[in-house]
Design a protein that fits this description.
five-stranded mixed β-sheet, about 250 residues
Amino acid sequence: MKINAPNKIIKELSALSSAHMRKKSGLFLAEGERLVSSVPKRLIKYYVLPEKSELTPLYGDLPVYTVSEKDYFSLCQTVNPQGIACVCKKFTCKREELFSKSPALIVLCENLQDPGNLGTIIRTADAAGASGLILTKGCCDIFNPKVLRSAMGSVFNLPILTNADFEECAELLKSEGIKLLAAHLKGEKTPYETDITFPTAILIGNEAKGLSERAEKAADRLVKLPMLGKAESLNAAVAAALIIYEAVRQRL
């Protein structure tokens, strides 16, 4: 049953464009038919539709609020909204969930701040069957609308530990027998010359500054992607994808 959204709901929806309010409320907005259909039912609080939408929510027993076309367009971040959205409860994972696959393949992002890059890395890790991701403090919010769109639903498919302390995570990974492999300009070997069949955490740093000195020192191995042209570096998401899939190739 569709219900006209009261002002309280409209205010809640408007607030979710802010990272601060997403953190405070513990909620986030997923929009678009494909993304909404990827959200597990346990996370959905309610659906939001523009008044003239003919789309049917996947779980018909959950509340469905309608808003005016004008309000719907102002709430959504996409240029051409698809006519369905849902408000969801934020989630994280337990550390032990990261070690459910063997040999482990974990992506550890340090201070990664571009939402498009983060979403693409999450989607790539999901496609590659990775064990999960760890995002340190300072990384972009995974519930940022741009991250959700870039990830294409993959945020719901694998464990993602957020707001993690780098030193604690590095110690935890090493205690589990996982080697830290860092993409770094100081690397003497390429990923193609490096054994990545062992349990591995791939370290990806900030788009502009790369990995911090602490991450460089914590790494067991540094690898460098060959740069045969004039470009000085690769996009963080592209670099991550190349190393992730080299690990997949070696393990096939």
